[in-house]
Design brief:
The structure holds 2 protein chains of 2 kinds. By secondary structure, chain A is α+β, with helices and mostly antiparallel strands. Helix content of chain A is 22%, strand content 39%. Chain A has a 7-stranded antiparallel beta sheet with strand order 7-13-12-11-10-9-8, with helices on one face. The two termini of chain A are 24 Å apart. Chain B is built from 7 helices and 4 strands. Classes of the chains: A alpha+beta, B alpha+beta.
């Protein structure tokens, strides 16, 4: 295992698709706690140092482009990375923003995002929380790739959940909307148990350390004035802890983009669109490109 | 009775598992160990000067190590007398495997904290130390199966030693330690999972009741 990891480290990511994107490297919360953070991004060691309200990112003494948004420091090695995707809910003053933590996982970014989009595993992996037998059916939903915004949108997703959120007191049929506005980031909107008219936001921002090693940054931007940060965090950590061994037991660890590589079922519509979308970008790093 | 707990903490899981196996009613107070490091604050050190979870409170008594918690729970609440048996041989065996459990925490457990929650340390060295222990444990369990022994100690039933070692072994993959080469450990994990009163944690799944 050590040898595998060594071999992966020797070659630095030179995939223009990855290099030209912004990537999360540390939450402001973690940065404030430690003052600095040493981590990996696209096979390169980077150091983030708090500076005023923001941060400075360096790679081998050279400055790396950075910005602060959604409670995170983002970095890019690109010449002109396009602006970060919009999540307007972050600006709504009455929402709770809770960073639920960052976890290291031995998996590619693509596998982590695909798992986040998948509803089929809820009753088995998150039994008693996000799903429960015999309510295992993934009802038909819609998926589209928005050309304007260059993102995947899955709508009309519904699932029966015994405990959809920390504030739930009973099982409910829950509505989901998924957005994938970045190859390594996904945002989920789900019915809020506290406010029928609005949707809670749960995000996963994946920091690709290497092709098969990530830091998964998760958090919530929700309507809930009753639960403590600790309760919200514990709820999300329990769910992520359940996903982790499943993610780490998927082989190959890189996401295969060839449509014939793995056999999808109807419930995997969003995953099919996601793989197709990544392939259309010409992504070759962290994935197994089609035709290889 | 109150357990100061953190869901993803291996030794907290050992304490929860023991409480569940013995069916001891208790309340849980979650400590924000990660990412907040609330266990290192002066407020928590007033509860456990070691700055560690789990902590078990029973009336005025307080136990701040997992070894202490398991030994106390078995002595005070196990009416069967099986979990911490009172013979000379088994006392020695249990004490020995409790020490191995602490070594597993410092190796396999540490590798997990480094890989998953970015604790400081040398993951490769931690894994190397763990692999050495897992080899010995796997051999011990394999020979046990041949002799008709199912557990770490020579009793015909599990002891607190099995419960102390279990979390670090069942969570080893989090630290990058595969159990592919340790089939006897895998079978022992399934035996623990089939104990009446067994409870899962996030990242540990139940097994079938078959066999």
């Amino acid at each position: 295992m050590a040898q595998d990891r060594g071999a992966l480290m020797t070659e630095l990511c030179n995939d223009p698709v990855m290099l030209e994107h912004w990537h999360p490297v540390v939450s402001l919360e973690e940065l404030r706690r430690h003052g600095r953070c040493r981590t990996m991004l696209l096979d390169r060691a980077v150091e983030i140092v708090a500076q005023g309200e923001g941060a400075v990112v360096r790679c081998e003494a050279a400055l790396v482009g950075s910005l602060v948004q959604y409670g995170y420091v983002w970095a890019s090695f690109g010449e002109a990375p396009k602006p970060l995707f919009a999540v307007p809910e972050f600006d709504e003053a009455d929402r709770r923003f809770v960073v639920t933590g960052v976890f290291g996982v031995q998996v590619s970014a693509g596998r982590a995002i695909e798992n986040f989009l998948d509803m089929g595993h809820f009753p088995y992996v998150h039994a008693g929380i996000l799903g429960e037998e015999p309510h295992t059916e993934v009802k038909d939903y819609d998926v589209e790739v928005s050309q304007n915004r260059d993102e995947i949108l899955a709508t009309r997703c519904r699932f029966y959940q015994p405990k959809a959120a920390v504030s739930s007191d009973a099982g409910a049929e829950v509505d989901y909307i998924y957005r994938v506005p970045h190859p390594n980031c996904a945002v989920l909107y789900k019915s809020s148990p506290m406010d029928a008219a609005r949707l809670d936001v749960i995000y996963i921002f994946v920091q690709p350390m290497g092709q098969e090693r990530i830091r998964a940054h998760t958090g919530m931007c929700i309507i809930d004035d009753a639960s403590s940060d600790l309760e919200i965090r514990s709820f999300q950590q329990t769910i992520f802890g359940q996903d982790k061994p499943i993610l780490e037991n998927q082989y190959p660890r890189r996401l295969p983009l060839d449509p014939r590589a793995e056999t999808p079922i109807r419930a995997d519509k969003s995953a099919i669109a996601y793989r197709r979308w990544l392939a259309s970008k010409g992504l070759r790093w962290g994935v197994i490109p089609a035709g290889v | 009775m109150k357990l100061y707990d953190f869901e993803l903490h291996a030794e907290c899981y050992a304490a929860r598992l023991m409480l569940s196996l013995l069916g001891v009613p208790h309340e849980v107070e979650t400590v924000d160990v990660y990412p907040e490091a609330a266990h290192l604050t002066p407020a928590f050190r007033a509860i456990n000067p070691l700055g560690r979870v789990p902590v078990l409170e029973d009336g005025a008594l307080r136990f701040g190590t997992v070894q202490g918690i398991l030994a106390y729970l078995a002595a005070a609440y196990d009416t069967s007398g099986q979990w911490a048996p009172d013979t000379a041989v088994l006392r020695g065996e249990v004490a020995g495997w409790m020490a191995i459990a602490a070594e597993l925490a410092a190796t396999a457990g540490q590798a997990r904290l480094i890989e998953t929650m970015f604790a400081q340390g040398d993951a490769e060295a931690a894994r190397a130390g763990a692999e050495g222990l897992l080899r010995v444990i796997d051999q011990h369990l394999w020979f046990g199966e041949v002799e008709g022994r199912d557990w770490l100690c020579s009793a015909p039933h599990p002891t607190i030693a099995d419960i102390a070692c279990f979390p670090h072994l069942v969570l080893s993959e989090d630290g990058g330690i595969s159990r592919q080469d340790y089939p006897a450990i895998r079978r022992w994990i399934d035996r623990v999972k089939r104990l009446p009163g067994f409870t899962v944690m996030s990242g540990v799944f139940a097994t079938s009741s078959a066999l």
